């Protein structure tokens, strides 16, 4: 017969020594859970991933984690991913109880590399099945995690500024900082973990325990299915830091499903260094969209949250070409074409993608029409600009699509037409 969960919890309490903790992750009424042991609520399909993250954080200090989930959760993609991730991570301090589980569930866990034990004893990841448990009342709301201060961040930033390096290697910059900062965690380097919903939920839990987690996502990573996990992290005010190729960024409109995230799109090395330093120093959930290559006309100085940068400052611009870091080359080339036609144009790079730099757009709209550029099909940048632009502004959108890749001539022609129409 399986050991009662209350007896298991009592046994663990007797052997865990501070600063280790006993943590219980469940949306079910687990018997014997003491005040303060139940972790903050996560969406049901992310419960096991949350437990994996807590177990990872408790490993160095000797804590243990118990996850209790209904057997129906085993059909969730994120739960299945967490099962295999737990074994890859070798989480010896993680135990799982399946409420209402049966022989088929144990066979699944065995295939995923879990050890089956009635008393949840020994090293994990270990699992057992228990009788059906009722739903629990929501856990008390978690307080925002304590701020994380990286003591050597300032010196690291200054060293990067002095570096005359070729195009940015954000991974190398992070690795260099990690040699000085034991609280900086780099999942892309240190964890055998996929950047899916389960992996990101694990990273969020580790970030919530006083670590600064910065994950350089792999090429062609699709975050669309992971947006619920990112929403849950932002709701709990967890300052997770993600970096990904700008061309892999989900459409900007999709981020309404994950409010609370800052999206930053630097254009060149100096901007990237400033944005990365800013992200690592703040307690905001932040994603940095990395440019495909460094833009030659880079800017120096610190990054200002919610900002844009004017590349060309014309005294009386007839139009402003508005772009993100995926469209900056198009915008600059189109500006040169407009100059040969006698039309002065500014270029506004929206370094902040979510939220967009509203004040900069208002100022630009007061000077003339806005030409918003979507260099990639389906990027959603132009739609976001239209949504936030002043009501009286004249906004012209030019977009790449499946049948046609936008060219500088397309952008210049759209700007000429808008300037003529505006008189």
List keywords for this structure.
single chain; 423 residues; alpha/beta; Rossmann fold; 6-stranded mixed sheet; 5-stranded parallel sheet; 17% strand
Helix content: 25-40%
Q: Averaging pLDDT over every residue, what do you get?
A: 88
Order of helices and strands: HEHEHEHEEHHEHHEHEEHEEEHEEHEHEH
Q: According to CATH, what is the class of the largest domain?
A: Alpha Beta
Radius of gyration based on Cα positions? 25 Å
CATH architecture of the largest domain: 3-Layer(aba) Sandwich
Major beta sheet summary: 6 strands, mixed
CATH-derived topology of the largest domain: Rossmann fold
Number of strands: 16
| Beta-strand content | 15-25%
Task: Find the structural class using helix and strand composition.
Answer: alpha/beta
Outline the low-pLDDT stretches.
none
Fourth-level CATH superfamily of the largest domain: Thiamin diphosphate (ThDP)-binding fold, Pyr/PP domains
The total domain count is 3
Please report the distance between the alpha carbons of the first and last residues.
84 Å
Strands of the widest sheet, in order across it, are 6-7-8-10-9-14
Overall shape: it is elongated
């Amino acid at each position: 017969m399986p050991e009662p969960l209350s007896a298991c919890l009592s046994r663990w309490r007797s052997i865990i020594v501070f600063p280790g903790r006993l943590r219980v992750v469940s949306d079910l009424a687990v018997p014997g859970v003491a005040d303060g042991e139940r972790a903050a609520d996560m969406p049901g399909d992310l419960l096991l991933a949350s437990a994996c993250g807590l177990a990872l954080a408790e490993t160095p200090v000797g804590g243990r984690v118990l996850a209790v989930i209904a057997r129906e959760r085993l059909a969730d993609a994120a739960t299945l991913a967490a099962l295999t991730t737990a074994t890859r991570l070798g989480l010896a301090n993680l135990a799982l109880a399946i409420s209402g589980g049966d022989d088929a569930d144990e066979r699944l866990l065995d295939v995923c590399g879990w050890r089956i034990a009635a008393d949840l004893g020994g090293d994990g990841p270990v699992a057992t099945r228990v009788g059906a448990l009722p739903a629990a009342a929501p856990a008390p709301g978690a307080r925002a995690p304590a701020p994380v201060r990286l003591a050597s961040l300032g010196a690291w930033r200054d060293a990067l500024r002095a570096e005359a390096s070729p195009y940015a290697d954000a991974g190398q910059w992070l690795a260099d900082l990690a040699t000085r900062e034991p609280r900086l965690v780099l999942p892309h380097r240190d964890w055998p973990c996929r950047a899916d919903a389960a992996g990101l939920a694990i990273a969020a839990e580790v970030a919530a325990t006083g670590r600064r987690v910065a994950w350089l996502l792999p090429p062609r990573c699709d975050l669309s299915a992971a947006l619920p996990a990112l929403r849950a992290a932002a709701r709990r005010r967890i300052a997770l830091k993600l970096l990904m190729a700008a061309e892999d960024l989900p459409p900007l409109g999709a981020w309404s499903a994950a409010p609370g995230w800052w999206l930053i799109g630097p254009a060149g090395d100096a901007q990237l260094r400033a944005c990365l330093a800013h992200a690592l120093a703040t307690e905001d959930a932040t994603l940095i969209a990395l440019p495909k290559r460094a833009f030659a006309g880079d800017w120096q100085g610190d990054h200002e949250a919610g900002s844009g940068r004017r590349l060309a400052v014309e005294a009386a611009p007839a139009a402003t070409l508005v772009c993100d870091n995926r469209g900056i080359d198009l915008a600059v080339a189109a500006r040169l074409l407009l100059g040969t036609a006698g039309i002065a144009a500014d270029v506004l790079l929206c370094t902040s993608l979510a939220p967009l730099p509203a004040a900069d757009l208002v100022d630009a709209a007061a000077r003339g029409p806005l030409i918003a550029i979507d260099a990639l099909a389906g990027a959603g940048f132009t739609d976001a600009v239209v949504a936030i632009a002043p009501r009286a502004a004249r906004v012209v959108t030019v977009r790449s699509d499946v049948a046609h890749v936008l060219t500088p001539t397309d952008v210049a022609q759209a700007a000429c037409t808008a300037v003529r129409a505006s008189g």
